Amino acid sequence: MNPKILVLAVETSSRIGSVAIAVGKNILAETTFSAPIKHSAEIFTAISDILDRFNRKPDNIEQIHISAGPGSFTGLRIAVTLAKTMHLANAAKIIAVDTLDVIAANANDYIKQKKTTTASHSESPCNHLVPSEIEGRPGKDSPERIATILDAKRGQFFIAAYQRNTSNTQTTDSNGTWEKIFPDSLMTAPQFLKQFTNDEQPIWLLGDGLLYYKDIFKAGTVRFMDEKYWSPRASNVFLLGLKKALANKFEDPLTLTPNYLLRPDIKIKTR
Length: 271
Description:
There is one protein chain. By secondary structure, the chain is of the alpha/beta class. The protein has 2 domains: 6-99 and 232-246, ATPase, nucleotide binding domain (Nucleotidyltransferase, domain 5, 2-Layer Sandwich), CATH 3.30.420; 102-229, ATPase, nucleotide binding domain (Nucleotidyltransferase, domain 5). Helices cover 28% and strands 24% of the residues. It contains 6 helices and 10 strands. The chain has a 5-stranded mixed beta sheet, sandwiched between helices. Strands 8-7-6-9-10 form a 5-stranded mixed beta sheet. β4, α2 and β5 (93-97) form a beta-alpha-beta unit. The chain starts with 5 loop residues before the first strand and ends in a 25-residue tail after the last helix.
């Protein structure tokens, strides 16, 4: 991959939108929108501002990485339309990544912070317990199995499950990779609990679908990451997209469509 190539990453599939730019394999900056559901209002300003900070122009962008779903119907359309427009305008290559995978990548951020907190605790002369940012104690439970949750409306959720793999020699991340063990699916909370809480191994949940529905996912072996790990981020869109770009797995702009997983609720008015 050209170390000087400029990449734009876009995340508009969930409540909180963000954009990031990178050169080669290095992220330069990431900007999060000012409030939930501000995708259409802020995306172009956010892109312009982040490019200006590094004296870049939209026609300098050679790749665009997007979060393609499942997720918000409107948000996914915004990302796909932007990607196709940039391809038409300056032949930018397109990478599309799975939104639930993007959320799962946040788990590594938790693990990194946990290691830092644990190290600080061990060096503390008082050696008092440091309050955790998640439910559970810092040295006790470590996320080896996670599930990502997005609200699909009408009591259903977009859900995928992952197992942590630290033996993958192809990754440079010491925290390992998250291998999908349950594909993107449309489920109710009871269906999920029946599927994933029938053994003693904890499963850690994250995702914006928990914002209003966390209580219905509570069970004995369920753990919840802190809310700051719930939203997908453009920086992780880029990191996941980078793997596909290095493997030359670009999208065909003519056939690219969002992964709705569930058809949008469109009602035809009749007289």
